[in-house]
Amino acid sequence: MSVTALEQAPRALLSGWPLALRLVLREQRNGLRGFYVFIACVALGVAVITGVGSLADALRAGFERQGEAMLGGDVVLSRPHKPLDAAERAWLAHRGTVSESANMRAMARRVDGSDQALVEVKGVDGAYPLAGEVRLAGGAALQEVLRDGAAAAVDPILLARLGLKIGDQLSIGTLQLTVRDTIETESDRLSARLTVGPRVLMSLDTLRRTGLIEPGSLVGWRYALKLSGDAGKTGAGLRKFRDDVKAALPEAGFTIRDRRDPSPRVSQTLERLRQFLTLVGLTALLVGGVGVANAVATYIDRRRKVIAAFKSLGATSRVVFGLHLLQVLLMAGIGVALGIALGSLIPFGLVAWFGDMLPIRADLGLGADSVLVASSYGVLVALLFALWPLGRAEQVRPAVLFRDEVAPERVLPRPRIIALTLSAAVLVAVLAILSADARLLAFYYCLAVVGIFAVFLLLGSLVSWVARRIPRPRQPELALAVGNLGAPGGLTRSIVLSLGAGLSLLVAVMLVNSSIVAELTERLPAESPSYFVLDIKRPEIAAFESLVRREFPGAQVRSAPMLRGRIVKVGQRPAEQVKAPPEAQWVLNGDRGLTYSEGVPEGSRVVAGSWWPAHYSGEPLVSFEADIAKGLGLKIGDSVTVNVLGRNVTARIANLREVKWESLSLNFVLVFSPNTLAGAPHNLLATVTLPKDAPLAAEAILAQRMGREFPATTAVRVKDAIEAFDAIFQRIMVAVRAASGITLLAGAFVLAGALATAQRRRIQQAVILKTLGATRRRILASHLAEYAILAVLTSFIALGIGAVAAWITVVHIMHLDFVFSGAAAAEAIGLAVALVGLFGGFGTWRVLRAPAVPYLRAE
Amino acid sequence: MAQPVISLDGVSLTLTSRAGPVEVLRHVDLHVMPGESVAIVGPSGSGKTSLLMVVAGLEKASSGGVRVAGHDFMALGEDALALVRGPNIGIVFQSFHLVPTMTALENVALPLEFAGRPEAFDAARALLGEVGLSQRAEHFPAQLSGGEQQRVAIARALSVRPQIILADEPTGNLDGTTGKQVIDLLFDLQRRRQATMLLVTHDSDLARRCDRMVRMTNGQVAVETLACA
């Protein structure tokens, strides 16, 4: 580079870049040395975000492509209790081919009554399925199998559970059916509601003969349509059909889904999981940011004399800054590209290994949005952490060349650099918040990240500060360790920050997990029921209660009327136009359980307004759960319209209740005044609470008797339901824990990078100590003491922060009891010690093996 | 009759490099008596520093006999050598090699601490006084000038009152005036403590201040002369 060239470097930024660019390209002739950890840290975080995004993209693409098969048609209309009437049927038939099915929960029993299981029954007409397929193990067509009298095709799990085989009979309701075949695949299964038991398929006629379908029974009626002409081919056609339904059948109370989003519940869950795991990936990226900052700071320190030489030859600060900024961006670009390449491979690996666990077949591919989000995060986080140390590059003075270098002063970068750093931080936060549905939670996440980084930055500085000021320990090994902890430019801050932030997240996730598991498995409230029993006919409730009390004199039976209906209007707004936070929005998705009550239900407390008087007969009134009412923007006096049995019922909110959901008693969001719903045909829902010491065998006998005497009822064992949920929850937690583990891996990268940076200095120190007579044991002991102090301090603080974060999540967001798990805590501390031990131990091993002579010869 | 405190008999040192084995020392014989000061001179690459490292036990000879302070260095392992080196040998380097994370006082006290001496810091403070750095005791190496750093290094090398001082170009990184002050200090301390000194240098004036001068060429001892001769 000639002096003239530099003198000619114009002041304007834009014309300054080409020179900087030329210099960058010259610099890169030395390869990527010193930037490996930088690149690895960026690549890891970007890989997680890309991996999560591309898996979600793949599942979404799968959804869109397989939507028709998953739905069983172009459109599905569903509603509880009430099948189509003649007019509705005619209206739909005019618009395309219709297939009707009825879904309900029921008990399948062995014909000798010795065993029974909760099943999901689906009765189908002759047109089913209009799209997709039901494949049976025997290879026969479904319709052929079901046409043959009282026949059923069942999930093979049911046969195993009841000890039956193909050709055997089982009882459902009052009918005995022959099991003709087992189901291999059922393409529209996922779009149905959450399934709690194995599937039993039968014809609609057979289902009617079971005696389960009666007025008031909890039956979900489902109408799949293949629209005539091109109406089902385009989004506009599907939207028009939806509008037509609303206009022509305004009070039908249908929930309508079309093939563009066959299961909003599943796609919503996937979207939430994607957003959550993206934040976890971002955390990994931010932890890796510490590695980026270290790498840049080390690089700039190493180049002080080169920078001084540049400046002495006439380079402006702007050129120096531009050169190094370009270099950082180049490295970030390599990290981002590597991360995207790795991340896009993640779904392939997951599908290959865990394909069976995914809800649908994933269409592997990579969406532009996911790549954009991941690379934006990658570049922004790299800038966020690199700008500050880069800012020091432009402050190097050429005088460095002419005199012995003393320890460089740590001065603040110029205001412009500070502003740029803050802008990068704000952009990362804005991106995180705007791309989340639960924006408040994302905002809290950003606050938590800032808080955690601040705490560990302070802790790192505090450890260094204390180490410099405490009296020198008498043990030379310990004195060396303390000296290293307090040394300027030492490892303390990097290790504490990188390890602490990753570990805090892992501790929080583990403690939230253990609290939820404890809640699910150990901490069922003392008064929690043993069974939920559906579809007890009103006249039968006394006989049902006496049966239970005969078998278990101490048992308690509580019952409430149970209908299903859908909220169609919130105040004056149609429900589909209401945008509420996720914790309230779910109430508007599909149909809900409704009840009516003379008095305040057990487990509830009126917190606003007043309960209706006994024998009330005025305008329809409703009691609303307080938190959800708040989420929907409802207050006392507002109206709510519910569609029940194909009729819109509007009621005024008379009071708000606080509900103890965790009591698992008969809790409802909406409780109506009796005069509103008592006239509608309905059954009762009951809970049965058995004495705590009830023997399992006696429980089995009660279940058999209930089945025999009340064949239309369905009993759900609470423990079984909780275990089933727990199994699903654990699968999700595996993903969450794996993702959090990656944050710790990012911490490990930073740790490795920081140790590698310090390696030469440490070897030099060890060699000097050897010349002074120190044995290897002594050097090892001093390193061990240093690492142990750092690992233990960091893990205890991380434990504290993780526990507080978990406590806030569990108690204030999930409203559960917080359980501190000693095992989870020990695991976290063990991990920290192991990680530091592993990387530090490897570094020390190399320090001890390093020959002394090359380090002692004059440089 | 007194025994030599340093005895090298037919010492060879061969190092392996990518280009093949390099014979750094070839059949070197050297015997140094207690209290004697010996200058080792010679062109760059002649093996002067390697010879010093072998005597310090920091480099293991490929063959021959190395006996220092009554110990057979060829029979000792790395840690045993460190334990012999601690109380017996003080080393002064051209590049000072102070521990950067420790103050001047802590650097000087360190060998005494390794030796388990309870008065380590008092002795270190006294030594810093002897080298004229009492006011700089709490400064870190990066806060000291080159001459000051080398004086700390000399104080550290002599803190355990070693019977042998090994100095490798101790003035190589210092200007003339500072170098002279440092070397005066080194000789003064060596004589007062009656220590044996092996001094590697390019400076013939400096070499002449020693009792004896050994000239090395191509890894061999070429000439041994009395320094003042």
Notes on the structure:
The complex is a heterodimer of chains A (859) and B (229). With 859 residues, chain A is an alpha+beta fold. In chain A, the strands form 2 sheets. In chain A, strands 2-3-8-5-7-6 form a 6-stranded mixed barrel. In chain A, strands 12-14-19-16-18-17 form a 6-stranded mixed β-barrel. The two termini of chain A are 27 Å apart. Chain B is α/β, with parallel strands linked by helices and 229 residues long. Helix content of chain B is 34%, strand content 28%. Chain B has helices at 48-56, 78-88, 104-114, 120-130, 146-158, 176-192, 204-208, and strands at 6-17, 20-32, 37-41, 63-68, 71-72, 89-92, 164-168, 196-200, 212-217, 220-226. Chain B starts with 5 loop residues before the first strand and ends with a strand. The chains are: A alpha+beta (859), B alpha/beta (229). At the A-B interface, helix 15, helix 22 and helix 23 of A face helix 1, helix 2 and helix 3 of B.
Notable characteristics:
heterodimer, A: 859 residues, alpha+beta, six-stranded mixed beta barrel, 25 helices, 21 strands, elongated, disordered N terminus, B: 229 residues, alpha/beta, six-stranded mixed beta sheet, four-stranded antiparallel beta sheet, 7 helices, 10 strands
Summarize this, please?
Chain A is an alpha+beta fold. In chain A, strand 6 (169-172) and strand 7 form a beta hairpin. Chain B contains 7 helices and 10 strands.
Calculate the terminal CA-CA distance of chain A, rounded to whole Å. 27 Å
Mean pLDDT of chain A: 82
Binned, the helix content of chain B reads 25-40%
Mean pLDDT of chain B: 87
Sheet/helix structural class of chain A: alpha+beta
Based on CA atoms alone, the radius of gyration of chain B comes out at 17 Å
Q: What can be said about the biggest beta sheet of chain B?
A: 6 strands, mixed
Largest two-chain interface: A-B, 32 and 40 residues
Taking strands numbered 1, 2, ... along the chain, how are they ordered across the largest sheet of chain A?
2-3-8-5-7-6
Using only C-alpha atoms, the radius of gyration of chain A works out to 34 Å
